[in-house]
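Re: the pair you flagged

First of the two:
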Amino acid sequence: MSQDDDAALLVAFQRGDEAAFRLLYERNARSMIAFCHRFVRDAARAEELAQDVFVKLYRMAGRYRPEARFKTFLYRVATNHCLNEVRRAEFTARASGPVGDDQAPDLDALPSSAADPHDEAVARSLEQAVLALLGSLPEKQRAAFVLCRFEGLSYDEIAETLETSVSAVKSLIHRATVSAAAALAPFGPGGGEEVRS
Protein backbone atom coordinates (compact mmCIF):
# COMPACT_ATOMS: atom_id res chain seq x y z
CA MET A 1 0.00 0.00 0.00
CA SER A 2 1.17 3.55 -0.69
CA GLN A 3 0.70 6.89 1.02
CA ASP A 4 -2.27 7.41 -1.28
CA ASP A 5 -3.73 4.22 0.20
CA ASP A 6 -3.37 5.75 3.68
CA ALA A 7 -5.24 8.82 2.46
CA ALA A 8 -7.95 6.57 1.02
CA LEU A 9 -8.23 4.77 4.36
CA LEU A 10 -8.69 8.03 6.23
CA VAL A 11 -11.35 9.13 3.74
CA ALA A 12 -13.08 5.76 4.17
CA PHE A 13 -12.98 6.31 7.94
CA GLN A 14 -14.52 9.76 7.46
CA ARG A 15 -17.38 7.96 5.73
CA GLY A 16 -17.90 5.65 8.70
CA ASP A 17 -15.60 2.69 7.99
CA GLU A 18 -14.09 1.91 11.42
CA ALA A 19 -12.06 -0.99 9.97
CA ALA A 20 -10.25 1.52 7.75
CA PHE A 21 -8.96 3.37 10.81
CA ARG A 22 -7.77 0.12 12.42
CA LEU A 23 -5.82 -0.67 9.26
CA LEU A 24 -4.42 2.86 9.18
CA TYR A 25 -3.26 2.37 12.77
CA GLU A 26 -1.67 -1.01 12.02
CA ARG A 27 0.20 0.42 9.02
CA ASN A 28 1.59 3.43 10.89
CA ALA A 29 1.83 2.56 14.60
CA ARG A 30 5.40 1.23 14.59
CA SER A 31 6.84 4.19 12.72
CA MET A 32 4.89 6.58 14.96
CA ILE A 33 6.32 4.97 18.11
CA ALA A 34 9.82 5.36 16.65
CA PHE A 35 9.07 9.00 15.79
CA CYS A 36 7.85 9.76 19.33
CA HIS A 37 10.83 7.92 20.82
CA ARG A 38 13.19 10.31 19.08
CA PHE A 39 11.54 13.17 20.96
CA VAL A 40 11.20 11.71 24.44
CA ARG A 41 13.96 9.07 24.59
CA ASP A 42 11.75 6.84 26.71
CA ALA A 43 10.26 3.73 25.12
CA ALA A 44 7.20 3.44 27.37
CA ARG A 45 6.36 7.14 27.05
CA ALA A 46 6.88 6.95 23.28
CA GLU A 47 4.26 4.21 23.05
CA GLU A 48 1.84 6.30 25.12
CA LEU A 49 2.45 9.35 22.93
CA ALA A 50 1.93 7.33 19.76
CA GLN A 51 -1.40 6.09 21.15
CA ASP A 52 -2.31 9.71 21.95
CA VAL A 53 -1.43 10.72 18.38
CA PHE A 54 -3.84 8.14 16.96
CA VAL A 55 -6.57 9.22 19.39
CA LYS A 56 -6.08 12.79 18.14
CA LEU A 57 -6.03 11.58 14.54
CA TYR A 58 -9.31 9.74 15.20
CA ARG A 59 -10.88 12.89 16.59
CA MET A 60 -9.42 15.20 13.93
CA ALA A 61 -10.11 12.95 10.95
CA GLY A 62 -12.94 15.21 9.84
CA ARG A 63 -10.44 18.02 9.20
CA TYR A 64 -8.46 15.98 6.70
CA ARG A 65 -8.88 16.93 3.05
CA PRO A 66 -8.00 14.32 0.40
CA GLU A 67 -5.90 16.79 -1.58
CA ALA A 68 -3.44 16.97 1.35
CA ARG A 69 -0.85 14.23 1.85
CA PHE A 70 -1.82 11.90 4.68
CA LYS A 71 1.78 11.68 5.89
CA THR A 72 1.99 15.46 6.29
CA PHE A 73 -1.32 15.52 8.17
CA LEU A 74 -0.25 12.68 10.48
CA TYR A 75 3.15 14.20 11.23
CA ARG A 76 1.65 17.62 11.93
CA VAL A 77 -0.55 16.01 14.59
CA ALA A 78 2.38 13.96 15.94
CA THR A 79 4.91 16.82 15.92
CA ASN A 80 2.57 19.18 17.75
CA HIS A 81 1.81 16.50 20.32
CA CYS A 82 5.50 15.63 20.87
CA LEU A 83 6.53 19.28 21.10
CA ASN A 84 3.82 19.86 23.70
CA GLU A 85 5.20 16.89 25.64
CA VAL A 86 8.81 18.08 25.64
CA ARG A 87 7.68 21.55 26.73
CA ARG A 88 6.11 20.17 29.86
CA ALA A 89 8.20 20.91 32.93
CA GLU A 90 7.83 17.32 34.15
CA PHE A 91 9.38 15.97 30.97
CA THR A 92 12.13 18.59 30.93
CA ALA A 93 13.21 17.61 34.43
CA ARG A 94 13.10 13.90 33.60
CA ALA A 95 14.91 14.26 30.27
CA SER A 96 17.73 16.40 31.60
CA GLY A 97 19.50 13.33 32.94
CA PRO A 98 21.59 10.96 30.84
CA VAL A 99 19.94 8.35 28.65
CA GLY A 100 19.88 5.27 30.84
CA ASP A 101 20.45 1.60 30.12
CA ASP A 102 16.93 0.87 31.35
CA GLN A 103 15.44 2.52 28.29
CA ALA A 104 14.59 0.29 25.37
CA PRO A 105 16.64 0.79 22.23
CA ASP A 106 15.33 2.77 19.32
CA LEU A 107 13.07 0.71 17.06
CA ASP A 108 15.47 1.40 14.20
CA ALA A 109 18.42 0.05 16.18
CA LEU A 110 21.64 -0.29 14.26
CA PRO A 111 23.11 -3.65 15.34
CA SER A 112 21.91 -6.91 13.84
CA SER A 113 21.94 -10.28 15.55
CA ALA A 114 24.89 -11.26 13.33
CA ALA A 115 27.10 -8.35 14.46
CA ASP A 116 30.12 -9.08 16.62
CA PRO A 117 30.10 -7.80 20.22
CA HIS A 118 32.47 -4.90 19.51
CA ASP A 119 30.31 -3.72 16.57
CA GLU A 120 27.20 -4.03 18.71
CA ALA A 121 28.80 -1.99 21.49
CA VAL A 122 29.87 0.72 19.04
CA ALA A 123 26.38 0.75 17.48
CA ARG A 124 24.74 1.00 20.91
CA SER A 125 27.09 3.83 21.83
CA LEU A 126 26.27 5.60 18.57
CA GLU A 127 22.55 5.15 19.17
CA GLN A 128 22.86 6.68 22.64
CA ALA A 129 24.84 9.59 21.17
CA VAL A 130 22.12 10.18 18.55
CA LEU A 131 19.41 10.15 21.22
CA ALA A 132 21.43 12.54 23.39
CA LEU A 133 21.97 14.80 20.39
CA LEU A 134 18.24 14.86 19.62
CA GLY A 135 17.51 15.68 23.24
CA SER A 136 19.94 18.59 23.16
CA LEU A 137 18.54 20.26 20.03
CA PRO A 138 16.05 23.13 20.37
CA GLU A 139 12.48 21.93 19.80
CA LYS A 140 11.97 23.22 16.26
CA GLN A 141 15.41 22.04 15.13
CA ARG A 142 14.73 18.60 16.56
CA ALA A 143 11.35 18.40 14.85
CA ALA A 144 12.72 19.51 11.47
CA PHE A 145 15.76 17.24 11.74
CA VAL A 146 13.73 14.16 12.71
CA LEU A 147 11.14 14.78 10.00
CA CYS A 148 13.88 15.18 7.38
CA ARG A 149 16.57 12.67 8.37
CA PHE A 150 14.47 9.93 9.97
CA GLU A 151 11.02 10.26 8.39
CA GLY A 152 12.11 11.30 4.90
CA LEU A 153 9.78 14.26 4.50
CA SER A 154 10.66 16.88 1.90
CA TYR A 155 11.37 20.49 2.89
CA ASP A 156 7.95 21.47 1.56
CA GLU A 157 6.25 18.77 3.66
CA ILE A 158 8.21 19.77 6.76
CA ALA A 159 7.30 23.42 6.22
CA GLU A 160 3.64 22.43 6.00
CA THR A 161 3.92 20.17 9.05
CA LEU A 162 5.64 22.83 11.17
CA GLU A 163 3.55 25.62 9.65
CA THR A 164 6.59 27.64 8.65
CA SER A 165 8.48 28.61 5.49
CA VAL A 166 10.75 26.35 3.45
CA SER A 167 13.67 28.74 4.07
CA ALA A 168 13.07 28.46 7.83
CA VAL A 169 13.06 24.66 7.51
CA LYS A 170 16.35 24.72 5.59
CA SER A 171 17.89 26.89 8.30
CA LEU A 172 16.62 24.63 11.10
CA ILE A 173 17.93 21.50 9.40
CA HIS A 174 21.27 23.13 8.60
CA ARG A 175 21.81 24.16 12.23
CA ALA A 176 20.76 20.72 13.49
CA THR A 177 23.06 19.03 10.95
CA VAL A 178 26.02 21.14 12.09
CA SER A 179 25.29 20.12 15.70
CA ALA A 180 24.93 16.48 14.65
CA ALA A 181 28.22 16.52 12.76
CA ALA A 182 30.05 17.86 15.81
CA ALA A 183 28.35 15.51 18.27
CA LEU A 184 28.82 12.41 16.12
CA ALA A 185 32.32 13.17 14.79
CA PRO A 186 33.93 10.55 17.08
CA PHE A 187 31.94 7.86 15.25
CA GLY A 188 33.09 8.91 11.78
CA PRO A 189 36.07 7.58 9.84
CA GLY A 190 39.20 8.18 11.87
CA GLY A 191 37.11 9.34 14.82
CA GLY A 192 38.66 6.73 17.06
CA GLU A 193 35.50 6.06 19.08
CA GLU A 194 36.39 3.49 21.70
CA VAL A 195 33.74 1.66 23.65
CA ARG A 196 34.83 0.52 27.07
CA SER A 197 33.41 -2.74 28.36
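Second of the two:
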Amino acid sequence: MSDNPQPTVQAADVRQVKEWLDRNEILLVDVRETSEYEKEHIAGAVLLPLSSFEPEMFPALPGKKVVLHCAVGKRSEAAGKMLLKEGYDRVIHMSGGLQAWKEAGYATEVQMEPVEEKQAEPVFLCPPPGQVLMEEYLKPLGISPQELARAIHVLEGRITEVLAGTSPVGVELSLRLARYFSTAADFWIHLQVEHDLERARHSVGEQIRRDIRPRVAGK
Protein backbone atom coordinates (compact mmCIF):
# COMPACT_ATOMS: atom_id res chain seq x y z
CA MET A 1 0.00 0.00 0.00
CA SER A 2 1.44 3.41 -1.02
CA ASP A 3 2.24 5.97 1.66
CA ASN A 4 1.51 8.81 -0.77
CA PRO A 5 -2.21 9.42 -1.24
CA GLN A 6 -3.36 9.96 -4.80
CA PRO A 7 -4.32 13.58 -5.60
CA THR A 8 -8.02 14.27 -5.94
CA VAL A 9 -10.08 17.00 -7.58
CA GLN A 10 -10.76 19.65 -4.94
CA ALA A 11 -14.28 21.09 -4.72
CA ALA A 12 -14.98 24.74 -3.96
CA ASP A 13 -18.49 26.04 -3.31
CA VAL A 14 -19.95 28.89 -5.35
CA ARG A 15 -19.48 31.47 -2.60
CA GLN A 16 -15.77 30.79 -2.40
CA VAL A 17 -15.46 30.89 -6.19
CA LYS A 18 -17.38 34.20 -6.30
CA GLU A 19 -15.00 35.72 -3.75
CA TRP A 20 -11.96 34.55 -5.72
CA LEU A 21 -13.46 35.86 -8.96
CA ASP A 22 -14.29 39.26 -7.45
CA ARG A 23 -10.69 39.54 -6.21
CA ASN A 24 -9.36 38.49 -9.64
CA GLU A 25 -7.51 35.57 -8.05
CA ILE A 26 -8.69 32.82 -10.42
CA LEU A 27 -9.14 31.85 -14.04
CA LEU A 28 -12.64 30.38 -14.31
CA VAL A 29 -12.93 27.73 -17.03
CA ASP A 30 -16.34 26.63 -18.37
CA VAL A 31 -16.18 23.05 -19.73
CA ARG A 32 -19.74 22.95 -21.10
CA GLU A 33 -20.43 22.91 -24.83
CA THR A 34 -20.41 26.05 -26.99
CA SER A 35 -24.22 26.06 -27.41
CA GLU A 36 -24.69 25.98 -23.63
CA TYR A 37 -22.13 28.76 -23.10
CA GLU A 38 -23.76 30.98 -25.74
CA LYS A 39 -27.15 30.69 -24.04
CA GLU A 40 -25.87 31.58 -20.57
CA HIS A 41 -22.52 31.83 -18.82
CA ILE A 42 -20.66 33.46 -15.95
CA ALA A 43 -19.06 36.74 -16.97
CA GLY A 44 -15.33 36.35 -17.41
CA ALA A 45 -15.38 32.56 -17.72
CA VAL A 46 -13.19 31.03 -20.44
CA LEU A 47 -14.80 28.31 -22.58
CA LEU A 48 -12.92 25.01 -22.99
CA PRO A 49 -15.56 22.36 -23.89
CA LEU A 50 -15.01 18.92 -22.39
CA SER A 51 -15.69 17.31 -25.79
CA SER A 52 -12.45 18.88 -27.11
CA PHE A 53 -10.61 19.15 -23.80
CA GLU A 54 -6.83 18.78 -24.12
CA PRO A 55 -5.08 18.69 -20.71
CA GLU A 56 -1.65 19.29 -22.21
CA MET A 57 -2.89 22.59 -23.66
CA PHE A 58 -4.58 23.72 -20.46
CA PRO A 59 -3.86 27.36 -19.53
CA ALA A 60 -1.71 28.23 -16.54
CA LEU A 61 -1.44 31.77 -15.18
CA PRO A 62 1.26 32.63 -12.63
CA GLY A 63 -0.25 33.66 -9.32
CA LYS A 64 -3.77 32.54 -10.21
CA LYS A 65 -5.72 29.41 -9.36
CA VAL A 66 -7.69 27.73 -12.14
CA VAL A 67 -11.26 26.66 -11.31
CA LEU A 68 -13.34 24.42 -13.60
CA HIS A 69 -17.12 24.56 -13.80
CA CYS A 70 -19.98 23.09 -15.84
CA ALA A 71 -23.77 22.88 -15.45
CA VAL A 72 -24.01 20.84 -12.24
CA GLY A 73 -20.45 19.78 -11.41
CA LYS A 74 -20.19 16.39 -13.13
CA ARG A 75 -18.28 17.38 -16.26
CA SER A 76 -15.97 19.79 -14.41
CA GLU A 77 -14.97 16.99 -12.02
CA ALA A 78 -14.33 14.70 -15.00
CA ALA A 79 -12.14 17.37 -16.61
CA GLY A 80 -10.31 17.77 -13.31
CA LYS A 81 -9.48 14.06 -13.25
CA MET A 82 -8.06 14.38 -16.76
CA LEU A 83 -5.78 17.17 -15.54
CA LEU A 84 -4.62 15.09 -12.57
CA LYS A 85 -3.63 12.29 -14.94
CA GLU A 86 -1.65 14.84 -16.97
CA GLY A 87 0.36 15.73 -13.86
CA TYR A 88 -1.38 18.83 -12.50
CA ASP A 89 -1.01 18.70 -8.72
CA ARG A 90 -3.82 21.08 -7.72
CA VAL A 91 -7.13 20.91 -9.54
CA ILE A 92 -10.27 22.72 -8.33
CA HIS A 93 -13.82 22.48 -9.63
CA MET A 94 -16.93 24.43 -8.60
CA SER A 95 -19.37 22.10 -6.88
CA GLY A 96 -22.95 22.40 -8.09
CA GLY A 97 -21.89 24.18 -11.28
CA LEU A 98 -23.87 26.96 -12.93
CA GLN A 99 -27.06 25.69 -11.33
CA ALA A 100 -25.71 26.28 -7.81
CA TRP A 101 -24.26 29.63 -8.90
CA LYS A 102 -27.71 30.83 -9.99
CA GLU A 103 -29.44 29.38 -6.93
CA ALA A 104 -27.07 31.45 -4.79
CA GLY A 105 -28.36 34.57 -6.55
CA TYR A 106 -25.23 35.33 -8.59
CA ALA A 107 -25.52 36.95 -12.01
CA THR A 108 -24.91 35.36 -15.40
CA GLU A 109 -24.72 36.74 -18.91
CA VAL A 110 -27.67 35.63 -21.05
CA GLN A 111 -27.94 35.78 -24.82
CA MET A 112 -30.91 37.98 -25.69
CA GLU A 113 -33.47 36.69 -28.18
CA PRO A 114 -34.88 39.03 -30.88
CA VAL A 115 -38.15 40.64 -29.77
CA GLU A 116 -40.06 39.50 -32.81
CA GLU A 117 -39.32 35.83 -32.25
CA LYS A 118 -41.74 33.59 -30.44
CA GLN A 119 -41.08 32.73 -26.82
CA ALA A 120 -38.01 30.51 -26.58
CA GLU A 121 -38.10 26.99 -25.25
CA PRO A 122 -36.79 26.51 -21.70
CA VAL A 123 -33.00 26.35 -21.44
CA PHE A 124 -31.93 23.12 -19.78
CA LEU A 125 -28.69 23.37 -17.83
CA CYS A 126 -28.65 19.60 -17.22
CA PRO A 127 -28.32 17.92 -20.64
CA PRO A 128 -29.83 14.47 -21.20
CA PRO A 129 -27.44 11.53 -20.88
CA GLY A 130 -27.71 10.83 -24.59
CA GLN A 131 -26.34 14.27 -25.44
CA VAL A 132 -23.42 13.87 -23.04
CA LEU A 133 -22.77 10.38 -24.42
CA MET A 134 -22.67 11.59 -28.01
CA GLU A 135 -20.90 14.96 -27.60
CA GLU A 136 -18.39 14.07 -24.90
CA TYR A 137 -17.64 10.40 -25.56
CA LEU A 138 -18.73 8.93 -28.90
CA LYS A 139 -17.78 11.84 -31.19
CA PRO A 140 -14.39 12.67 -29.56
CA LEU A 141 -13.43 8.98 -29.42
CA GLY A 142 -14.72 8.17 -32.91
CA ILE A 143 -17.05 5.43 -31.66
CA SER A 144 -20.30 4.71 -33.51
CA PRO A 145 -23.51 3.77 -31.68
CA GLN A 146 -23.28 0.34 -33.29
CA GLU A 147 -19.74 -0.19 -31.97
CA LEU A 148 -20.75 0.93 -28.50
CA ALA A 149 -23.75 -1.42 -28.46
CA ARG A 150 -21.53 -4.38 -29.38
CA ALA A 151 -18.87 -3.42 -26.82
CA ILE A 152 -21.28 -3.21 -23.88
CA HIS A 153 -23.53 -6.09 -25.04
CA VAL A 154 -26.83 -4.30 -25.54
CA LEU A 155 -29.12 -3.98 -28.54
CA GLU A 156 -28.22 -1.21 -30.95
CA GLY A 157 -31.74 0.19 -30.61
CA ARG A 158 -31.17 0.73 -26.90
CA ILE A 159 -28.27 3.07 -27.62
CA THR A 160 -30.02 4.95 -30.43
CA GLU A 161 -33.05 5.52 -28.19
CA VAL A 162 -30.86 6.98 -25.43
CA LEU A 163 -29.06 9.21 -27.93
CA ALA A 164 -32.40 10.41 -29.30
CA GLY A 165 -33.72 11.08 -25.80
CA THR A 166 -36.67 8.72 -26.26
CA SER A 167 -35.49 6.22 -23.65
CA PRO A 168 -33.93 6.97 -20.24
CA VAL A 169 -30.71 5.49 -18.88
CA GLY A 170 -31.47 2.82 -16.28
CA VAL A 171 -29.20 1.45 -13.59
CA GLU A 172 -28.02 -1.53 -15.68
CA LEU A 173 -27.08 0.61 -18.68
CA SER A 174 -25.38 3.07 -16.32
CA LEU A 175 -23.21 0.24 -15.01
CA ARG A 176 -22.37 -0.97 -18.52
CA LEU A 177 -21.42 2.52 -19.72
CA ALA A 178 -19.45 3.16 -16.53
CA ARG A 179 -17.48 -0.05 -17.02
CA TYR A 180 -16.68 0.74 -20.65
CA PHE A 181 -15.79 4.43 -20.24
CA SER A 182 -14.22 4.08 -16.75
CA THR A 183 -16.60 6.54 -15.11
CA ALA A 184 -18.22 6.32 -11.68
CA ALA A 185 -20.91 3.64 -11.56
CA ASP A 186 -23.63 6.20 -10.86
CA PHE A 187 -22.39 8.87 -13.30
CA TRP A 188 -24.89 8.11 -16.08
CA ILE A 189 -27.88 7.50 -13.83
CA HIS A 190 -27.19 10.80 -12.06
CA LEU A 191 -27.19 12.61 -15.40
CA GLN A 192 -30.60 11.09 -16.11
CA VAL A 193 -32.03 12.02 -12.70
CA GLU A 194 -30.71 15.59 -12.85
CA HIS A 195 -32.13 16.07 -16.36
CA ASP A 196 -35.50 14.59 -15.37
CA LEU A 197 -35.70 16.79 -12.27
CA GLU A 198 -34.96 19.91 -14.28
CA ARG A 199 -37.60 19.03 -16.88
CA ALA A 200 -40.11 18.44 -14.08
CA ARG A 201 -39.26 21.81 -12.51
CA HIS A 202 -39.92 23.51 -15.86
CA SER A 203 -43.22 21.71 -16.44
CA VAL A 204 -44.84 21.39 -13.01
CA GLY A 205 -42.49 23.09 -10.54
CA GLU A 206 -44.49 26.31 -10.30
CA GLN A 207 -47.76 24.41 -9.88
CA ILE A 208 -46.25 22.32 -7.08
CA ARG A 209 -45.02 25.44 -5.29
CA ARG A 210 -48.53 26.90 -5.44
CA ASP A 211 -50.30 23.71 -4.36
CA ILE A 212 -48.06 22.47 -1.56
CA ARG A 213 -47.05 24.31 1.58
CA PRO A 214 -43.89 23.02 3.34
CA ARG A 215 -44.60 21.21 6.60
CA VAL A 216 -43.70 23.17 9.71
CA ALA A 217 -42.16 21.17 12.58
CA GLY A 218 -44.58 20.56 15.44
CA LYS A 219 -47.69 21.11 13.36
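The mean pLDDT is 85.

-B.
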